[in-house]
């Protein structure tokens, strides 16, 4: 990873290489390296237990990782805009209760229920966004308060938990598979949904909205002077985040069922995934698919710890070390990338007028 | 060098005669007035000894952690590992004390030393390895929690009666623990106002690059803040040990001290991005939480609904002075909005 | 800079020392906890052979009282004389609750409130003031202290959040001379008027592990799904079960899941991929459905499983016809503290340690419980024991948290 950076420092422009060279180059950025890390974890898991090398097992694994990957994608929009969303787990929990209590056994409510859930998701995102941009309350606090309020309200109204899981038709979205596929046997529906959302995200980030979002995260003042409606761009990011949490909730209620703990810890897991994906807290840098790869890496790590029979109590410690080390390495890579003036991933390569030369803790200037 | 790192000027900059800290204090007074009315409606006395003790005892633990959190946030970082540091120091100290008064001193030293080491690592990872405080301390919290879960199953050790007195002694209605916490607050205020490290902390939190170009070694104040934050979390852990009489490996997480301390700091008027804020506001923020919780408990508000009220109050209160900071922005960077025009008219 | 920082720390330490010293003089008036270090809390292992043996015995003991009202049954033993508290006036009860943060506690809390209505109507209890500690030891200690000084309480009901930490506060409540009823998790003092609990965690572990051992072969693998470490009523369940598994050559691997079905499903899926899983052991039943669905999704046969009397497990069990057992941590115990106050008001003697029956639901009894609890939500517990209370069944079906 470091050696490639060295050679690249000699040959300057990113476009002087072929596709292969450019791919190798992007692998040397934090956003690219996460793919290598995920691949390495997968190989390690397969070596530790060859059963995990079975294509059917891998595809099912990818399927069950879809909810956290989708949540990470949602969190990406918010983080790249320089904000946080701590309310994701609360949104998921609320959606699970709606799925259980409103839809329940009644298949005729599947569509209206889904629409209702998406509307609620968008509304929560709108509230988060407006409180952050219009009321100028830091998003960390806004979404923390949203987390408290939404969780409390849902628990109070539902008596702590949903009555029952929604009907099997509704759960198919999170649990169903396309059968009879060659090689991999099945393709889980969540994986298809994830693939569609990934494609949509890549497209969206290439659109003016995506460019503006990154510009806003990099320097809100500069973006404002350039004519961007900062408040609306950020609010849209929050709406996307809550919608992503909603989709994750729909998949989770299918995959796992109803329980007050469904989605617990998703906000921190999603933020960690995004940061592992080389996206800088404070905004302005990072590729959306790297966030998805970050989610895969985290889930693979869990599985690897299971395969290696690591003591249940020590798992947290291993995770903690790996998160810190990975982000520290990424931070160094960003620093080097900055110094050589090129190694940003092709998709986030904005002509950013960042006043700083390296990512420093606390560059979160957004909304304050 | 010390010229550019002036003491907290931003908040003393008067606007409409009120500082952010002033507003926080007004909110606190309002909370107390409202609280005493609501308590009276329930047929109770807000200012009775028992009630004041309940409120003040609730401020001590969160207060220690929030003071440390303020220092870290002023420097532009965060500390999510505080609950685990509190738990860890509690169980370690309880184990060393083992019920013997003679062991209290070594236990305190070990707890504070351990916390300082953790804070040092946090600070180094944040300032030298350039890992965002959020991730660095989230990871540190995970590491500690794994260590605790592997080595301490359930309650452990025990505190001698002499040590427990810290948790159960009162001077009038005021718990001794609250006085110790206020003492720490005073020291933190002195650190921020009177020492170079304090001034540099503001500078680094405000703009690390400018601070660096001005010759400040940016890592020193950050590491100092993290060390102090962990040490204060250790004080909280020790106080909890005194209250519980045994080391409880999950006590820090039980109180949700990580997020609540950050909320208290911001409620107290400190900017989450760093560089602006003070300890007085934080203490007021902690007190607002304590009054709010006390009143809701007296009114027997359903437990889940309390979180709804907490959430609403946090946003509403922070919005009050967050709005004010907008007006402070230099006009030339702002397209004049309708509101601004109206304000101009009004003046 | 370094010097300044050091100065700050030193000054802090000095101030701490000074203030600590000062408190010792001032606190003479405060009763505090008079019990010095007895070291009782120091065992960090979760297995005590004596308790294990005692609970195994209690599982076969005869219970006094009417089997139709198991919440009033008890094992014969020492009784507390309550004649000094005999009164005709309605009592004010003060309830320091650990939390209502999981479905088991929520169900119990609903039942308790319906029982309260009956006793309020009977004029036994004037009102019950409740403080909820939100799973926080420190908060619950403050709650109890508040009740002592401000609550105007005639009786205390305490459901401790943890055993050793709440002991001094419970002792302070006892020092008021009012009746103190402790239930669910215990404390390390016998000052309470009565301590109400089902047989206990060991009994759970014994019943479940015996069942799995009977239905599995030596060398079979059991995956243990545990909620979280460090809670005594949960740790003793696993402590007892692990001992029995080890003795019978059952291979085990245990996980902490936080009862999160997503985590449970991932763990089981990975375990199935690693190798065959023959049995699932749970220290609480919520999430059992997710564990079973992991087997369905992998196209495997169901394992032998022990869940809980939680409705979702009972329903899944019936639906699939798998081989299972529903251990019970008697939820009806939430009625007993208030009924104990009724007996105290009458001056009747009550058991000092009130051990309630704790019987697993077997396959033969399952359908009766399913029928009796028809229409209840998934997070409801079959042995909630509120069928004769007002509001049945709507209050539990709608799960109105008071």
Automatic annotation (TrEMBL), chain A:
Residues 345-357 have a biased composition (Polar residues). The chain crosses the membrane at residues 32-52, 58-79, 86-104, 110-130, 137-157, 186-205, 237-258, 264-282, 287-305, 317-335. It holds the Pfam family BPD_transp_2. It is a multi-pass membrane protein. InterPro entries: ABC_transp_permease. It is found in: Cell membrane. Keywords: Cell inner membrane, Cell membrane, Membrane, Transmembrane, Transmembrane helix, Transport. Residues 338-368 are annotated as: Disordered. CDD domains: TM_PBP1_transp_AraH_like. This is Autoinducer 2 import system permease protein LsrD. It comes from Nocardioides vastitatis.
From TrEMBL, chain B:
The chain crosses the membrane at residues 20-43, 55-74, 105-125, 131-149, 170-192, 222-241, 262-292. Pfam families: BPD_transp_2. It is found in: Cell membrane. It is a multi-pass membrane protein. InterPro entries: ABC_transp_permease. Keywords: Cell membrane, Membrane, Transmembrane, Transmembrane helix. It comes from the Bacteria. This is ABC transporter permease.
Automatic annotation (TrEMBL), chain C:
Coiled coil: none annotated. The keyword Cytoplasm does not apply. Residues 1-23 form the signal peptide. Gene3D superfamilies: 3.40.50.2300. Keywords: Signal. PROSITE patterns: PROKAR_LIPOPROTEIN. It holds the Pfam family Peripla_BP_4. It is found in: Cell envelope. Residues 95-310 form the Periplasmic binding protein domain. Residues 370-402 are annotated as: Disordered. Belongs to the bacterial solute-binding protein 2 family. This is Substrate-binding domain-containing protein.
